[in-house]
């Protein structure tokens, strides 16, 4: 993380910034797509970390200079495992290869994300899926879109008819969190129609925003895997909170995003 930035007056509108941010994540995604196809073999944690870093570096070589030009005084966060509140001012929260381990295993669920956060509130985000060519965008107060088409969360009103999803916040998670995740999956297997479990979180949240699935939850978490999706879901008419139904912030210990009609039921299920 770079040093605390000074708040600056925007030189361009947030709508203009969003268009340029979307172009930046598409460029980075194209570079990662060229590296995709064969399973990358590794025999140790060190080899795995080097392979992950090579993907990150490829995307960041394109993302960082383009986003820095857009907001020269904004801070920069690229560690996808960082959590908690940010200092005041503007920050770029970037995941250069969201779902990086999937990329290494030749699995299709990965993306490039960039979110501008202003005084701890996400104001715009762009999420690009290079293998499908889809780009999800959201602008605070102006809605969420998929390639320019407005997104809306599902109108589901019954958890028993819902597809729900969860994700793993990070490797080597605390045992208490692991047990809580396991208990929540068991509860949702009893209450929901279908439960999906996979990484990364951002793609589940994009599906919530698009109305394809009805709820997503996660215990623990990081800014880079929750902020983009939180803005997408909110701007698509969904509700976000922690798992107990309280206001969510990047410092919260849990996260829930759901269609409004099942949010309360999901809170009850996750509280058991």
Automatic annotation (TrEMBL):
TM regions (residue ranges): none
Domain of life: Bacteria
A Pfam family per the record: Inositol_P
Protein name: 3'(2'),5'-bisphosphate nucleotidase CysQ
The species this protein was found in: Streptomyces pyxinicus
